[in-house]
Amino acid sequence: xxxxxxxxxxxxxxxxxxxxxxxxxxxxxxxxxxxxxxxxxxxxxxxxxxxxxxxxxxxxxxxxxxxxxxxxxxxxxxxxxxxxxxxxxxxxxxxxxxxxxxxxxxxxxxxxxxxxxxxxxxxxxx
Length: 126
What we know:
Largest sheet: 8 strands, antiparallel, barrel
Order of helices and strands: HEEEEEEEE
Structural class: mainly beta
Strand content: over 45%
Helix content: under 10%
Shape: globular
Radius of gyration: 23 Å
């Protein structure tokens, strides 16, 4: 066992390498619920949920779904934040959330077998 007078100076020197200023990160989360959906066939009642998370340090945003996590881009403007998911088929899905009251619109521009299947959901996020 090494004497304390040998170990203590090593520990103090190593501690000096640790920055005194700590980096602080938050994970912001939005849980969105949509109760109406519009498509070319009309408007209908809906019970649809999405969840988003944004790491403020890494600036990484994800969509959390029943199939796991999916990376999404985001744009934070002065009135809303918008998340965008780029799909392998070339379509983009967007979700905009108002900074004021949490109201949200989720737009899907899906393409199945070469045909557009557009839809737009209306709801709110907390």
